[in-house]
Amino acid sequence: MSDVQRDKQFWELADSFIQLANSHLNEVKPSKVSASALFAASRFNAFLISASAASKEQLMTEKEAAIAYFLEQYEAMLRENIDEHLARYDQPDS
Q1: CB within 10 Å: which end of the chain, N or C, has fewer?
Q2: Would the pTM of this model clear 0.85, i.e. be above it?
Q3: Residue 16: phi, psi to the nearest 5?
Q4: Half-sphere exposure of 63 toward its Cβ, with a 13 Å CA cutoff?
């Protein structure tokens, strides 16, 4: 995630999405919350990709590169977050 500027607003936005997901855990299985969050992110990113294209042709031309970019970013973020959990795995909860 080194390409993303880690400013206060970035973390506040991320935390607000996590808080919203967590608020559903009392009524919905974690796997369904996770799947719906992932779907929402993909839907929003598809909108961003589409909205940034000047034409359908440009969207079709740039589609695979955009998908590759988002897959790469997601993998990097997921790996970083799992590594953070691994680093704290044996520590008692604070």
Answers
A1: C
A2: no
A3: -65, -35
A4: 6
Residues for the chain: how many in total? 94
φ/ψ of residue 89, rounded to 5? -55, -45
Lowest mean pLDDT among 4-13, 21-30, 72-81: 4-13
Burial class (CB in 10 A: 0-12, 13-18, 19+), 53: middle
Q: What tens digit of pLDDT does each residue of 27-51 get?
A: 999 999 999 999 999 999 999 999 9
Cα separations in angstroms, 86 against 20, 42, 57, 82: 24, 26, 44, 6
Residue 94 lies in a domain: no
User: In sequence order, what are the residues at sequence separation of 6 or more whose Cβ sits closer than 8 angstroms to the Cβ of residue 49?
Assistant: 59, 62, 63, 66
Q: Which two tokens stand for residue 48?
A: 């961003």
Domain that holds residue 63: 8-88
What CATH number is associated with residue 51?
Answer: 1.10.287.3020
